[in-house]
Amino acid sequence: MKVDVWVGSWENARNYAEQAIKQGVKVIISRGGTAALLRHSLDTAIIKVRFTSAAYLEAFERLRSVEGKIAFFVLDTMPSFISHFCKLLNIDACYYSYTGDKDVEEAVKKAKADGCHFGVGGVLAKNYARLYDFSYYTLENTEDEIELALDSAQQTLSSIIQEEKHHRELQLKLEQYEAVLNYTHDGILAINKEGNIVVVNRQAEEILPLKNKPYEGKYIEEVFPSSKLSSVLRTGEKEMDELMKTGNVVINTNRIPIMVNGKIEGVVATFKDVDSIRNSEQKIRTNLHKRGMIARYRFSDIVGESKVMKRAIYMAKSFAKYDANILIQGEIGTGKEMFAHAIHHESQRRNHPFLAVNCSNISADRLTRQLLGREKEGELFGSPESQEGAFELAHGGTLFLDKIDEAPLEAQSDILRILEDNEVCRINGRHTISVDVRIIASAGNGLQKKCK
Question: How far, in Å, CA of 337 to CA of 351, rounded?
């Protein structure tokens, strides 16, 4: 612990302390009267160096040769050991306590009026003893008393530093929560177990027809009567993906009860304007279309009246509902790619990328680079020279491998490994990337013969 020592009169103590605080001092150590003065005027930790019986031993040695009444001046409460020592040493003593600078002068004047001509105490009483021509002995703290004060200051400083650290961490969390609340796309509204609003973010104010601002602390029914949060507060049942209409606006909402130790302590609700959801989806679809990663055909685009075609469409629609990989076999020109597009569009991955890769008439190295992507040798992951592979680009969606039976065997082994591990490692890459891709592959009718 670093300790700076400032020496001066008690009149200047406050100025010294204020300078020290400006320099970053968090704990101040001072003696009795000065400590009381600083505690009264400053909002910082003040450690008082207390006088023990050891500090009075030298004073009592000197008092043996003093005749007449002796005044003892003490801040606050007079220690009992002083009167005990005085009785043992047959000292004619008077005792005066004071609480601060304002009444210490009165204590000295009274001692003078009581016939005392010698005083013992701290610095505060010393100044007035001089003023009234009063002989005086100034107590000095022992080394043990100072060390005790330093230990106390060290403990106080540690507590302050720990508290400041906790405060910074709490402040950081509050800032993070505030950022999440105000910069998410969803409106967020929360109530406590009494049904009073505790949180309303900026998006909720824009989306919802709220009344009676400011909202915090008010009963939810006064601010947003159609919220249905009171119902969730009573039942404890969450309500997900509910649609509600407020005015001319349709809103998608989730209402989630907050449970603590099995008891409902409140409800949090999220709100999103359905039109904004549609706009976001439209932007995603537009972006995928620009990049050529969208299914262009639906089952309605496949024309055919034969029983064979109708059965193929029926089977494809059935398979589309499941997330298993699919192999489509058929002669050239029978519409295998159209079926792949339509299956993706009918599946749960319809809002995610659809990417087609032609595996015929291509070298193993080129196809592998197209599927896996690559890193420029020596460059960091994600550098401008990096290139995403088809598996990464199709993440969350469908990868159509056209003419898989004509792909080089080396590339086929890479595809098999990715399907088994759900991970891809770019060429020259240093780490793997998790991928979630459904594979639809096409092949000619001669695949069984090639396998033999």
Answer: 19
Quick check: 384 pLDDT over 70? no
* The pLDDT of residue 379 is above 50: no
Contact 390, 402 (CB under 8 A): no
- Alpha-carbon distance of 419 to 390, in angstroms, equals 13
* pTM metric for this prediction: 0.45
CB environment 30-40: b (16+ within 10 A), e (fewer): bbbbbbbbbbe
Q: What is the pLDDT of residue 414?
A: 87
Separation of first and last alpha carbons in the chain: 82
Q: What six digits make up the tokens of 301? A: 């685009």
Give the pLDDT band (50/70/90) at residue 213.
confident
DSSP one-letter code for 260: E
Three-state DSSP string of 38-71: HHHHCCCEEEEECCCHHHHHHHHHHHCCCCCCEE
Model pLDDT for residues 220-252, shown as the tens digit of each residue: 999 998 889 999 999 999 998 888 877 777 788
Q: How far apart are CA 177 and CA 198, in angstroms?
A: 14
Tokens of 371: 């599927």
Residue 431 phi/psi, 5-degree rounding, is: -150, 165
What is the C-alpha separation between 50 and 316, in angstroms, rounded? 90
Q: Which phi and psi (to 5°) does residue 287 adopt?
A: -65, -45
